[in-house]
Amino acid sequence: MVALLLLSLLIVDSNFGTAFAHGIGGRDAAFVAATKGPDLVPFIYLGAKHMVTGYDHLLFIFGVIFFLYRMKDVVIYVTLFSIGHSITLLPGSC
């Protein structure tokens, strides 16, 4: 439990309080800043890129594949991950 707490402290940016995996930079940041309104295809690409490069998503997939055997457990795990992920992203959307 202590190791998980220490790990969570290491992956949080102390300046902004956001997780490193959710940063966006370079051309992606410029694209998002220049976008006015919905632009479905590019945002689907950015979402897919985030899922493949975000350590939290990779750990999530690892956990589902190797540690969960019952559908009930998968549903609980997916639900809790989604809630936690949404809560951590809310400060960045303000």
**Mean pLDDT, nearest integer?**
74
Extended strand count: 0
Gyration radius (Cα, Å) is 15 Å
Silhouette: elongated
- The overall number of domains is 1
Biggest sheet layout: none
Q: What class, by secondary structure content?
A: mainly alpha
**SSE string:** HHHHH
> Helical segment tally?
5
Helix content: over 70%
**Multimerization state:** single chain
Strand content: under 5%
Word description of this protein:
This protein is mainly α and 94 residues long. It has one domain (24-93). It contains five helices and no strands. The chain has helices at residues 2-10, 26-34, 40-53, 55-67, 71-93. Helix 3 (40-53) crosses helix 4. The chain is elongated.
Give the structure's gist in a few sentences.
By secondary structure, the chain is mostly helical. Helices cover 72% and strands 0% of the residues.
Features:
about 0% strand, mainly alpha, about 90 residues
Q: How is this fold's topology laid out?
A:
Elements (H helix, E strand, L loop, with lengths): L1 H9 L15 H9 L5 H14 L1 H13 L3 H23 L1
